[in-house]
Amino acid sequence: MSAFPQFEYHQNTLHAESVPLESIAKKFGTPCYVYSRAALTATFHEFKQAFADDDYLICYAVKANSNLAILNVLAELGCGFDIVSGGELHRVIKAGGDPRKTVFSGVGKLADEMRMALAADILCFNVESVAELQLLNQIAAAMNKTAPVSLRINPDVDSKTHPYISTGLKENKFGIPFAEAEQIYLSADQFQHIQFTGLDCHIGSQLTELSPFTEAGKKLVDLLQRLQSSNLRISHVDLGGGLGIRYSNETPPSIHTYVNALRQTVGSIKCRLLIEPGRSLIGNAGLLLTRTVYIKHTPDRHFAIVDAAMNDLLRPSLYNAYHEILPVNKKNGNPEKYQVVGPVCETGDFLGHDRKLILDTNDLLAVMSSGAYGMSMSSNYNTRPRAAEVMVDGNTIHLIRARETIDQLIAPETILPA
Ligand code: LLP
């Protein structure tokens, strides 16, 4: 199967499902994020089928792509959510998501965000420090509520991914050291307004091997068994997100293999299994459509200057991440090796280096695998309005976020009085 089954060439022109990308560019301009509803739905079903009849909950990591339409498609499919801010909770609720299927992660939850989440009756707080636990206990007391809590355990496991997105090593800021967690669970009495309902970990993102997941999972199961023998009633284990996708030649485990490995790891215990996938659900269901503005040949290099930039898709600049770049219309001729770069005033502003392409001015390009951590990490750097977002459903195109206008960008700003 192709890496992008919903983005395929028909008669040498790239389509999203049944829609030629050219027609999207014509109607909505570029740069433009394009998502396939079918791709997102199919991937969600793959997860569901892999869990079969188990007791499980898929909590989509909203940070990967928080557009309301995407959250809504997932909510309608019965998906839960993993949030890291009050803003993300607001989005989930607006999109028709169920707070009771929502877990709240993150090392720096604010008091107001805790209040909002308690008022919404979320499923669980994934707590990352004793200080956070104390504050949550106080806030829950003031609201006359009990906060359901999982401790996020830092299992000290090497996830073998980019250091910026590795989170489960003891030197990382995330989670509670494995050796300290048991003691905190056993001190439950000190926290009258906390109920420990789960165990949690998330060891990193874009993992392409199974062993770090199973290693972390085994540590959690081990701890859980000790807690159960101390009569603590824990009802779920949350193994976080992190499953990698194929950007170029990576070979991550399939969703089935991954889910099966997790099921086997926690198989011996009677517990609901939660996961928090972000990238693996939406990453390959989206692309960034861009147009060449200038072709520039220097004695050293060929540059394709396109209208998308690091403010639209930060991953290449930030992690040196590779995204495949495909021509929307295949042409005959001799390919040249291009540096595909944006208009932003930084040498780090590139979408791809050394890409073999046949290009002219005004050609359309598709930057693939951009559904996750594309739009959600975009900014207005260089006062560039953020891109439009479109979701294709069969042969229908839905605009799901209008391109920003410059007036919208400067609206919150004020000049000093004269
Ligand atoms: N759960 C927690 C607590 C997380 O921190 C994350 C991602 C996820 C779940 C979802 O992980 P995923 O399944 O998407 O790997 N900006 C980076 C990725 C940062 C991931 C942050 N945490 C990138 O563009 O590669």
Can you characterise this structure?
By secondary structure, the chain is α/β, with parallel strands linked by helices. It has 12 helices and 21 strands. Strands 4, 14, 15, 16, 17, 18, 19, 20 and 21 form a 9-stranded mixed β-sheet that branches. An 8-stranded parallel beta barrel has the order 5-6-7-8-9-11-12-13, surrounded by 5 helices. A 3-stranded antiparallel β-sheet has the order 1-2-3. Strand 12 (236-238), helix 9 and strand 13 form a beta-alpha-beta unit. Helix 7 packs parallel to helix 8. Bound molecules: ligand LLP. The site of ligand LLP has 21 residues, from helix 10.
Features:
418 residues, nine-stranded mixed sheet, alpha/beta, binds ligand LLP
What's the short version?
This protein is of the alpha/beta class.
Biggest sheet statistics:
9 strands, mixed
Global geometry: globular
Helix content: 25-40%
SS-derived structural category: alpha/beta
Average of the residue pLDDT scores: 96
Uncertain stretches: none
- Percentage of residues in strands: 25-35%
Specify Rg, calculated over alpha carbons.
Answer: 23 Å
Q: In angstroms, what separates the terminal alpha carbons? A: 64 Å
Q: If helices are DSSP runs of H or I spanning 4 or more residues, what is the number of helices?
A: 12
Bound molecules: ligand LLP
The number of E-state strands comes to 21
